Amino acid sequence: MQALTADQSFLDERGIGHVEQVFSRAVNLYLPAQQQLLTLLCEDYDNGPYSCRLALTHFDGLFRLGEPVQFHPSGITVGEDKWIEATSCRRWQPAIPQMDGERFWHIPWQQWREAIAQQLQPHETLFLGQGDNPFYQAISSALQQRRQTLFNALLSGQKISSAVANMVGLGIGLTPSADDYLVGLSAILFINGHPAQKYRSDFYCALAAARGNTTQLSAITLEAAFAQRYRESIYGFINGIINEPTHFSIQAIANIKNIGSSSGCDMLYGMADACALSQAYGGNYVRQNSY
Question: What's the pTM?
Answer without folding.
Answer: 0.93
